[in-house]
Amino acid sequence: MESEPDALFASLANVADLEDFLHELHERLGDRELKHGDDLTARASDLGVRVPEFLAGEPLVYELHDHKEHGIEGRALVLVRPSGITDPVAELKIFCGRWKRYTICLECGWIWCKIVIYGRF
Hints:
The protein is α+β, with helices and mostly antiparallel strands. Helix content is 27%, strand content 27%. The protein is built from 2 helices and 5 strands, in the order H-H-E-E-E-E-E. The protein has a 5-stranded antiparallel sheet with strand order 1-3-4-5-2, covered by helices on one side. Strand 3 and strand 4 form a beta hairpin.
């Protein structure tokens, strides 16, 4: 059994890997169209994006997600970093995936990108 500090370290390492994965996938996807139900982990592999080990075994499935109607059952974890988008009139780009019992959304605008993980922790 992992000690609490080791478990926390592993959790934070997984979150950092997830953040890197989603940002790299976002960059490589470009303007490609996604369809509800697309396997984002398979798409990432096709694009040469390294899929974090903890995602192995169950796909991260693209889903259309209505943020206005999404009731947060439990909590949401939000990760924010400056955006690499240099065009100030660029549209907000959003894509969401479902992995196990979590909905994970990446939203990138001109100034910031944020990842929101919805679910019970």
